[in-house]
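Hi everyone,

Forwarding the result from last night's run.
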Amino acid sequence: MPRKLCGTPISADRLAPLLGGGDTVREWTSGSFREPSSTAWCVVYVGRKEVLQLYFSSGGGKPDLMALARSGPTFGLFDPRPVHGIGERAVLANDGAIAVTSCRDSGGADSFLLALKMTDSPITPRRERHVERFMRAYMPATVKSLHCLEE
């Protein structure tokens, strides 16, 4: 099990339930989301099978997370619900989550959005709790790596 996912440290107990076991874990990243005012995708494979996608975006304003969660193939989560304690606002579903928090950067962005989309199957029993545990660990670790500017 990797010690980092898409450049962010994550413990195996948070990651393993989402990735499963056995085969080699690989990732493809579209660019660096750690640059000011940037957006990037990271696609994670186990063996030859795409398992999940992470979307990172620094931007402005307060996005409507529920609208994003219901927006179709880009984020399109199944039956999302609001959840507290992941960033400033978050929505959670069996097949992923979206969270946003304040993060001012030198490029003018004032917020950071992280979306997780499971791609291996639409619904897996009890996976929502694993998605939530992952996001509760991964979101703050990722934000810490961004070096947000002090207000």
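The chain has a mean pLDDT of 89.

Cheers,
N.
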